[in-house]
Specification:
The complex is a heterodimer of chains A (about 200) and B (about 260). By secondary structure, chain A is of the alpha+beta class. Chain A is built from 7 helices and 5 strands. Chain A has a single domain (about 35-195), classed as Nuclear Transport Factor 2, Chain: A. Chain B has helices spanning about 1-20, 25-30, 40-65, 70-95, 100-115, 140-145, 165-175, 180-185, 195-210, 210-220, 225-240, 245-250, 255-260, and strands at about 150-155, 160. Classes of the chains: A alpha+beta (about 200), B mainly alpha (about 260).
């Protein structure tokens, strides 16, 4: 009886702890955005900003997941070595491309507006990038992977209804289709991008 | 003549809609999935895309760059005027799609902004609750009627399109666009060809200026810029056809579900 009671109390305590440390997707997005905005509003060199943004991206974006999503069905035909090589190349490619895109913005103001839980694994967080004299207001939705409630990760950015992950997937698919599905050509393309 | 044409268009649409009575949101969604649309003429499309890029570098980019330096209220005024003119094409398409509520709202917007808003320069209609605005065209109406997009095309100067959207655009020159009718097709006292063509060039420059950094950024960071533009265009069309901003209803998520990285 005593063991049973200890067990139940233990379970309840564990559940409580899990809840205590789980991070709400909208809070996660707002805090990530605030971190990135802080970097972008600094008067630092672009290269330094890019490095700081890459650190944030490594902590908050599911780079591995996005990489295999963008590969489409081809991922099923890769052997373990090819998968490892792709994951490494994609991470480098993603961090360079992502930080270079973001570093062009200065002091972006993003407000999280709402969220919609799709299922246990996904929540869409809706936000607005405030307009400036140079550009209109932009609606940005974030696809957050919430399988691990304590460590939510960004899987996609949907800008005015246009998915960046989907665009990336179709870009890679076009390269593979033009080269008879040869994964080595995609590796070369990514290597060239990383080096240039 | 115009009456006859309108009658033919309405009859054709009525028949088409009947013949596709089984069409629903899911079917339209499936037909317009970017991954389902074939690039039948990829080599020609890529060549045309390269030509358009060169043209952009010589004309649109420099002009947009100067346009961006105009004071913000001036750019907003130009943008509002062009959007107001586009309502002339949107309203008949609202009707064709059976969306009479939006047709009413857009007609109200056009009347108020063209008069009180001084030829559309000021968007006064938004202050009386008429702020819902989504551009519609014949390509979207054909899609709503259940007609598939056909092959992906890149048109010289005009850019990305599909076979269906190109046919839709042809309706504009066959009497379907009231702005074309009163400027180019019919000799009116108040407007001429220059008004029509300058409004079209203006729309292109306005779009280029609004997306100036995004386009530069995308080009710089793409490993296949042609494929990126194609994907973005087709995603955008899919959204516009469905008139939805809810991405979650319009994406095939099955691929995401397979990826387990945690």
């Amino acid at each position: 009886m005593k063991i049973k009671l200890i067990f139940i109390v233990g379970i309840l305590y564990f559940l409580n702890l899990t809840q205590l440390y789980s991070i709400e997707p909208d809070v996660f997005v707002q805090s990530t955005v605030n971190r990135a905005s802080k970097v972008l509003s600094n008067n630092e060199e672009k290269e330094k900003k890019m490095k700081e943004l890459q650190i944030i991206a490594k902590e908050t974006v599911d780079i591995k997941g996005i990489g295999f999503y963008t590969l489409g069905k081809v991922r099923k035909n890769l052997d373990e070595d090819q998968k490892k090589k792709y994951a490494k190349l994609f991470e480098k490619y993603f961090l360079k491309s992502f930080s270079s895109r973001l570093a062009e913005y200065t002091n972006p103001e993003i407000d999280v507006k709402s969220k919609e839980v799709l299922n246990e694994n996904y929540t869409i967080v809706n936000s607005i990038l405030k307009g400036t004299a140079e550009r209109p207001e932009v609606k940005i939705d974030w696809r957050i992977y919430t399988k691990n409630k304590n460590n939510p990760l960004i899987r996609d950015l949907i800008i005015e209804g246009l998915s960046l992950a989907r665009t990336q997937k179709e870009e890679f698919s076009s390269i593979l289709n033009s080269n008879n599905g040869d994964i080595n050509i995609l590796f070369e393309t990514l290597e060239n991008f990383i080096q240039n | 003549m115009l009456k006859k044409f309108t009658l033919i268009v309405f009859t054709t649409f009525a028949l088409t809609i009947n013949s596709y009575a089984g069409s629903d949101g899911d079917l339209i969604l499936k037909k317009n999935q970017p991954s389902e649309i074939k690039d039948c003429f990829e080599k020609v499309n890529r060549a045309t895309f390269a030509f358009n890029q060169a043209l952009d570098g010589v004309i649109f980019q420099p002009v947009a760059s100067v346009y961006r330096k105009l004071p913000s209220p001036a750019r907003t005024g130009v943008s509002n005027t062009l959007e107001n003119l586009s309502l002339l094409l949107t309203v008949p398409n609202n009707v064709l799609q059976g969306d009479f509520k939006r047709a009413g709202v857009n007609t109200g917007r056009f009347i108020i902004n063209s008069t009180v808003g001084v030829l559309g320069i000021f968007d006064v209609a938004q202050f009386v609750g008429l702020n819902e605005f989504e551009k519609e065209d014949y390509g979207q109406s054909l899609a709503k009627a259940g007609i598939g997009p056909g092959c992906y095309l890149v048109l010289p100067v005009l850019g990305p399109s599909t076979a269906r959207d190109t046919i839709g655009s042809a309706f504009n020159f066959l009497g379907g666009d009231p702005w074309y009718n009163i400027t180019v097709k019919n000799d009116t006292q108040y407007f001429n060809d220059a008004n029509y063509y300058s409004s079209k060039v203006g729309t292109g420059v306005d779009f280029r200026a609004k997306n100036y950094n995004s386009i530069e950024n995308l080009e710089k960071n793409s490993v296949d810029f042609y494929a990126s533009v194609k994907s973005l265009y087709l995603q955008d069309r899919q959204q516009k056809i469905l008139n939805t901003k809810k991405i979650i209803d319009t994406q095939n998520d099955s691929d995401w579900e397979e990826i387990d990285s945690q």
